[in-house]
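Hi R.,

Here's the chain you asked about this morning:
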Amino acid sequence: MIEDNKIFFAKAGKELEKDIYLLPNKANRHGFICGATGTGKTITLKVLAESFSKLGVPVFLADVKGDLSGMIQEGKDSDDMIERKKRFKIEDTFTYEKYPVNFFDIFQKGGIPLRTTISEMGPQLLSTVLGLNDTQSDVLAVTFKIADDQELLLTDTKDLKAMLNYVSDHHDELKDDYGNMAPQSIAAIIRAIVALEGEGADIFFGEPAINVSDLFLKDTSGKGYINILDSSSLINRPKLYSAFMLYLLSELFEVLPEVGDLDKPRIVFFFDEAHLLFDNADDSLLEKIVQMIKLIRSKGVSVFFITQSPKDIPDGVMSQLGNKIQHALRAYTPAERKALKVAAESFRENPEFDTAELLETLGTGEAIVSVLDEEGIPMMAEHAYILPPSSKMGQADESEVEKAIKVSDLFIKYNTPSDPESAYEFLERQKIQEANEEIQAKEAAKAQKELEKAQAKQAKEIQRSIKSVGSTAAGTVGREIGNALGGAFGKFGKKLGGNVGASLARNLFGTLFKR
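And the predicted structure, written out as C-alpha cells:
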C-alpha cells in the first residue's frame, strides 16, 4: 500500500498500532527477505512488488514456486482476508487491484522468450557458470579476443564451440600472437558447454536478445510493469539460473547511466533463491558482485535478495543491504543455531524482545523488520506483521496468463528466434573453402603426377623408336659399304666393311640421340 508516497507494508506493536514504512528514496540501498520455507516470504515479496508498481517503478522477479502470476488479477474477499483487514484496521483504505505483468520464460513455454548472446555474457561470467579452472578461463578469454580481432560474432553456443574448435585446429598458427592454448583445455571447455546446453543454454543463448530497457515499462495508468520470470523449471538448472541473474545485474551495471540518489528507484529486482548466485562464484567474481551491488544504487537500481537464511548471502554483499525483513528461522543443528545468532546480531537491538529467541517463534506472516530512516540509519528492530497483498493469492487463471503473453508487444518482438550471420556460419564456410582448396590441391598434384608419368612414358617410346630406326639405318649403310668395297677386297672386304660400318653407325647414332 502507498501512503504519503511511502510504502506501507507492515504493522508492529501489541495492538498493531505502529505503521512500518519502506522509504522509496532509501530502497536503492537494497535489502533482503529471509526465512524458512512457509514463513511468508512470498507474501512479503508480493506486497513490496505491488507497492513499487503503484509508485510507477517497474519490478523484475523470479517466480520459483509458480504462485506469483496472481498479480495479474484482482484479489477477492474471503473469511481470512476480511479478518486480516479488520485486524490491521485497513478496511476503509485497502482495495483489491490487479497489476500490469509481462511473463518471461527462458524455455519459451510459459512466457515471452528471454535470451541473451554469448558475447553479451562475456568470458568471465561464462567461465564461472561453466565451472572452469584458471587455465581454462584464460583460454576462453583469449578465444573471445580472437573472435573480436577477427570481427566474428559469438551469438549462441554453436558459435562458441565453432570458435573453440577453430582455435584448437589453428593453435600452432595462433600461439605466436595469443600464447599457447592446449587442445586438452579447449576440449574440456567444449564438454562444459555441452553440459550447460543440457540445462537449456542452447535455447537461452541466441537472438533476438533481451534489451534491458524493455524491463522499464509502465502501463497507461502509470503503474510500473511487474516482469515475472517463470523459474519453476529453471530453478532445477542452477547453473543457467545463476548465469541469467548474474548477467542481468552486470548488464544493468554496464548500460545504465549514473543518476545519483532518486526519490524512488528506476527499477527493483527481487532475486529468489539468492544462494544460487553465489555458490559457484570465486573470490574474483564475488569481489566484482560486491562492487556492483555497492555502485549500482547510484544508477537507480534496487536489489532485494530472497533466501532461506542470511548465511546464504556473503558478508560483503550483506553489508550493502540496508532494508531487512527477517521471517522465522529454524535452528535444529549447531550450525543453524550459529546462523540464527548471527542473523539476530545484524539488527539494532530492541529492549522489548530477545531477537534471537523471537526468530525461532515467529508465526507465518510475522517478521523482524529493520528499514532505513530518512537519514539512512537502520531503525530499531520491530516485531512486525506483514500486510496482505491486493492482488489474487496464488496462481492466476491460465487463460488470463496466456492472454497477457499474446497481447504483449514484447511477445511480438521476441517470440520468433533468428540466427544471424555469426562465427559458426563464417567458420563453416571457411572450413568448406579450405576443404575444397585441399581437394583441388590433391587433384592438381594427381594431375601433375599423371602428366609427368605420361611424359616419361612418351619419352621412353620415342627412345625405343629412335633405337629401332637407328638399327635399321646402320644395317643399310653397312650393306652399301660392303657392296662398294666388295669388288676390291672380295669376301674379306665384305666381312670387314660390314663390322666396321655397323660399328660406326651405332657410334654415330648413339652419340646424336643420347640424352
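Residues 158 and 445 are 35 Å apart (CA to CA).

Let me know if you need anything else.
M.
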